[in-house]
């Protein structure tokens, strides 16, 4: 009954999609940032030990690519609403 | 049923010849000033956490937000078509009603800024128009179900949706980086924070500058200076974009201090989480047609990030003052809008009325600026310094106990 009344004012399906988007970003964004940070860490370790920086570079590139994709999706929604 | 329009009001909307150039110029100038207050009141939404975590220097942060607000204003004109659409009877909106609504919104924006409280500029504008409408035509001209659907329910949901996302993101951010060096973690999250807060600034420019474009365009149409089927003139877009950008650049340091330092102690991971949650909530909701208040979304995100950190503290007294301001925004702006409209009616003509009320409004604005300088002078230089216990009168309502 309450949900039926609420649905008159608020499309619950759309609200669910917004919630899913927020949860997805809340999981993916910190993971991508953490990937970049482990890349920084890996680069620093490689610098000290004289090993290749490739692993660190790849992590940073992947993390940045994920964040860039999320920003692109944000811009898309802003332009195409 | 809607009451018939009083003659004094009907003449302005129905017979554009009577909407003099003076009237139109003053209403457009008032709209642009509202846009400016909107910008400087809401700078904090995008940049408070970025400044608080020192991801960017205060002046650089507001300059970036200012540029993105300007650019955002040109991205889309989807929301510029109407003012308070679905909230009041659109066909009864007159130029003096728009003017009185703007005055109500500006005064409420300045009052909340003076007390360092983040509040919704959009809700203030809606409240001002509702109050002016009730004073001019009666309460039948207000679509109460629209207020419930477009203001009340979104206001209740926004802080919780963004707060939940920010809470989850903060838990993950700290959890995933707990074994990594503080220096690298901080650097990574600060970069991310700049990106996410820039997206919030862009979305803010797109949403809020266009509301003023809508107001100015409606005024020009109602005043007979623009055809109803004509596009928004370029000068209107440029002026509105420039006004919100100038307002943003001027800082709004008081509200930045409240959101950035007084709600919770923000670290880079929390700032990143709060702004990522906020940008997603704002963009996803506007994509599906919900108009959430950027202020309430970001405030919810900051609270969520405060709760998400183990041992994090949220200053609930500050939150309580913010929520009280959110509840008061609609009725308070409505009361001021109604008062402004009655003020216009005291004069023999609408043009004289708007000039008189504009002068009184400017005097009130000057008084509030003076009061703000006297009580808690916040600048770019001291915006992230913690509050000192002074014990004297004038401590801002946005300050923790």
Overall description:
- The complex is a heterodimer of chains A (81) and B (401).
- Chain A has helices at residues 2-9, 12-49, 54-79.
- Chain A is mainly α and 81 residues long.
- Chain A is elongated and about 65 Å long.
- Helix content of chain B is 71%, strand content 0%.
- In chain B, helix 2 (21-52) packs across helix 8 (234-249), helix 3 packs across helix 7 and helix 12 packs antiparallel against helix 13.
- The longest helix of chain B has 41 residues, at 182-222.
- Chain B starts with 6 loop residues before the first helix and ends in a 26-residue tail after the last helix.
- With 401 residues, chain B is mostly helical.
- Mean pLDDT of chain B is 85; it is low at 1-17 and 390-394.
- Chains A and B meet through helix 2 and helix 3 of A and helix 6, helix 7 and helix 10 of B.
User: Helix coverage percent of residues of chain A?
Assistant: over 70%
Beta-strand segment tally of chain A: 0
Separate helix tally of chain A? 3
Average pLDDT over all residues of chain A: 86
- Please state the CA-atom Rg of chain A, rounded to the nearest Å: 20 Å
Query: What is the makeup of the main sheet of chain A?
Result: none
Tell me the distance between the termini of chain A: 31 Å
Helix content of chain B: over 70%
Instruction: Give the class of chain A from helix and strand content and strand pairing.
Output: mainly alpha
